[in-house]
Write a structure and sequence with these properties.
Elements lengths: L5 E5 L3 H11 L6 E4 L2 H9 L3 E7 L7 H9 L9 E5 L5 H9 L4 E4 L4 H33 L20 H4 L4
Parallel strand pairs: 1-2, 1-3, 3-4, 4-5
Length: about 170
C-alpha cells in the first residue's frame, strides 16, 4: 500500500456518502467513494486503498460479498474494513462479518468522533504494518547475497552486552 493510500467509502445512498466524508474530512486523509459493491471492488483492485468503509446492504454485490472476495485475494486480504449498517443489531450479520475478518461493524447513524477515532487507529496501524513489511523485504534483499556474520564478526559492534557496573567487582 503506498503512503498516499486512500480511504474508500462505499454506500449506495449519496447522502450517506456525504455524511461519512464530512465526518472523516478533519483527519486529512485522501477520501474516495464508490456507490456499489462492483465499484468498490474495482477501486480496491487498483491497489490504492488503505481502508474500506463499507455499507453492508447494497443492491447487487453486497458489502459482505465484497469482504468475501477481498479476503480471497492476496493483495487485498489485509486491508482493514469497517462495515456500516443501518439495520440495527443483527447477531447473524455480526457473526458473519467478524468471521470474514472485518475490523469493526458500526451502526447508522454514525457518531463522527467515534468513527474518526476508529478510522485513524485502523488506517495508521495498517500503514505502519505495511511499512514494516517493506523494511523487512528490503533488508532480506540486502543480505540475501551476503553470508551471515560469524559469531565474533568485528563488523558487529555489540556481540554481547557489557557487564553491569555492580557485577564487574564480583568474583566467581
Amino acid at each position: 500500500m503506498p503512503p498516499d493510500a486512500k480511504i474508500l467509502i462505499v454506500d449506495d445512498h449519496e447522502e450517506t456518502l456525504y455524511a461519512l466524508e464530512s465526518a472523516l474530512a478533519p483527519l486529512g486523509y485522501q477520501l474516495t467513494r464508490a456507490t456499489s459493491g462492483d465499484g468498490a471492488l474495482k477501486e480496491v483492485l487498483r491497489g490504492q486503498v488503505g481502508l474500506l468503509l463499507l455499507d453492508v446492504r447494497m443492491p447487487g454485490v453486497s458489502g459482505l460479498d465484497v469482504v468475501r472476495y477481498m479476503r480471497g485475494v492476496e493483495q487485498t486480504q489485509l486491508i482493514p474494513i469497517i462495515l456500516v449498517t443501518g439495520f440495527g443489531q443483527d447477531a447473524e450479520l455480526t457473526s458473519a462479518a467478524f468471521r470474514l475478518g472485518v475490523a469493526d461493524l458500526v451502526m447508522k447513524p454514525v457518531d463522527p468522533w467515534t468513527l474518526r477515532t476508529k478510522v485513524r487507529y485502523l488506517y495508521d496501524s495498517h500503514q505502519r504494518y505495511r511499512s514494516l513489511q517493506r523494511e523487512v523485504r528490503d533488508l532480506r534483499a540486502l543480505v540475501k547475497g551476503q553470508e551471515p556474520p560469524t559469531p565474533y564478526d568485528p563488523r558487529i559492534t555489540a556481540q554481547r552486552p557489557a557487564p553491569r557496573q555492580q557485577e564487574q567487582g564480583r568474583t566467581a
